[in-house]
Amino acid sequence: MGPLAERIGFIMRRAQLLIAREFNAILQSLDLNTGQFTILTLIAHNPGLKQTEVSAALWIKRSNMVSQLRELERRGLVRRFPARRDRRSYALHLSPTGVKLLRGATHLSQEHDRRMTHLLGRSRKKQLMRLLQLITERAESMDF
User: Fold this and answer.
1) How far apart are CA 137 and CA 130, in angstroms?
2) What is the CATH number of the domain that holds 61?
3) Cα angle value 110/50/129 (rounded, 5°)
4) For the chain, what is the radius of gyration of the CA atoms?
5) How many of the other CB atoms lie within 10 Å of CB of 135?
6) How many domains are contained in the chain?
7) Ranges under pLDDT 50 in the chain
8) Which residues share a beta bridge with 81?
9) Alpha-carbon gap, residue 109 to 103, rounded angstroms
10) What pTM value is reported for the model?
11) Residue in 52, 62, 119, 55 with CA at minimum distance from that of residue 89
12) How many separate helices (H) and strands (E) can be counted in the chain?
């Protein structure tokens, strides 16, 4: 790999791809992908968010968000209701089916996280999480 092995971005991306590949394989049993899981999780913990707020929070392009939500709505996992303050936009909520599916997906996610934690150990995982959060905070303040 030469100099790439010394590049933070390259190593982070490689680790992320490996972890995401396994997580996506796990979620396939529920006919979900990582993006859908994160959308469902965010809506579950913040019922009533607007589509634009979910998109911004997860850094999902508007066009991708529209197609993801359309699919989740088609499957009966997400419901849209006119927003209270702005009738032109929609508040997003999980349906009972979405809540049930997310419960199973969250369990699988926790199991996956336990396996990933086992690779490092708890103290190194905490250290890694602190470092990644530091990178994120500092990079956001630099407005990359």
Assistant:
1) 10
2) 1.10.10.10
3) 35
4) 17
5) 13
6) 1
7) none
8) 91
9) 10
10) 0.87
11) 52
12) 6, 2
Q: With contact defined as beta carbons under 8 Å apart, do 66 and 139 qualify?
A: no
| Distances from the Cα of 82 to the Cα of 10, 49, 51, 62, 63, angstroms | 43, 11, 11, 19, 20
Structure tokens at 66: 């529209």
Report whether 37 contacts 27 (CB < 8 A): yes
Q: What domain range is 135 assigned to?
A: 2-141
DSSP string over 34-62: HHHHHHHHHHHHSTT-BHHHHHHHHT--H
Residue in the structure block whose two tokens are 């500092």: 138
The letter for the amino acid at 52 is T
Report the first-to-last Cα separation within the chain, whole angstroms.
26
